[in-house]
Specification:
3 strands, mainly alpha, about 190 residues, Transposase, YhgA-like, three-stranded mixed β-sheet, about 10% strand
C-alpha cells in the first residue's frame, strides 16, 4: 500500500506509565516528552509524546486497584518489600521475609510460589541499595544547590535595587541581618 494516496487510519495510541517510585506523586499526571528538551525558547516542539502516569504505590489509585486485583497485590508486595528493607540487615533477608509474608497473606501467592527464584533474582539484580542511597543524596544535593542559586539571585537583585535607590544603610544592614533582608525582599516584591 505504499503507492496509495489514501491516508492510512491508525488507532489512537494511549501511553501509560505505572509509577512505583519512592517520591510522593499524585495518583495521576500527564508527562510530556518535550519537558525534557533543552533550550526550547518557548518554541513549539516538532515532536511530542504524552503519557499518563498512574501512581501504583500502595494507597494510591484505589478505584483502579479495586478493578485490578493483580495490580493491587503487586502494590502490596512492593510496599512489603520496602518496609522490610528498612528493618532487616540485608536486602536478601528483607526480600525473603516479604515473600514469605505475602505468600502467607495470599498476596501474589500463586505467582510467587511458581516464580519465586525469578522474583528474587529480578529484585536483587535491579535493586542496589548503595546506588539507591547515593542517588537520593545526589538528588538532595542538587535540590539544595538549586535553592542556594535561587537565594543568591534574590540577594543579587536586592543589592541592585538598594544600590539603584541609594539605600546604602539598608544594603549594609541586609548583609548582616537575615530577617531584615527577608523584610526588604518582601517590601520590594523580590520572592
Amino acid at each position: 500500500m505504499i503507492y496509495h494516496e489514501k491516508r492510512v487510519r491508525l488507532p489512537k495510541p494511549k501511553y501509560i506509565v505505572f509509577y512505583n517510585g519512592t517520591k510522593n506523586q499524585p495518583d495521576s499526571m500527564e508527562l510530556r516528552l518535550s519537558d525534557c528538551f533543552e533550550n526550547t525558547d518557548n518554541e513549539a516542539p516538532c515532536l511530542e509524546c504524552t503519557a499518563t502516569m498512574l501512581n501504583i504505590n500502595y494507597g494510591h489509585n484505589q478505584e483502579l486497584m479495586k478493578h485490578c486485583r493483580r495490580l493491587e497485590e503487586y502494590s502490596i508486595f512492593v510496599q512489603c518489600v520496602r518496609e522490610y528493607i528498612q528493618s532487616e540487615p540485608s536486602v536478601e533477608d528483607a526480600l525473603e521475609k516479604a515473600i514469605d509474608t505475602c505468600i502467607h497473606q495470599d498476596v501474589l501467592a500463586d505467582f510467587i510460589k511458581k516464580h519465586r527464584a525469578e522474583v528474587t533474582n529480578m529484585i536483587l539484580t535491579t535493586y542496589d541499595k548503595d546506588l539507591y542511597e547515593k542517588t537520593l543524596k545526589e538528588d538532595a544535593r542538587e535540590e539544595g544547590r538549586a535553592e542556594i542559586r535561587a537565594e543568591l539571585n534574590e540577594f543579587k537583585l536586592l543589592n541592585k535595587c538598594l544600590l539603584k535607590a541609594k539605600r546604602y544603610n539598608d544594603l549594609e544592614r541586609a548583609t548582616e541581618d537575615i530577617e531584615y533582608q527577608k523584610k526588604l525582599l518582601k517590601e520590594l516584591g523580590i520572592e
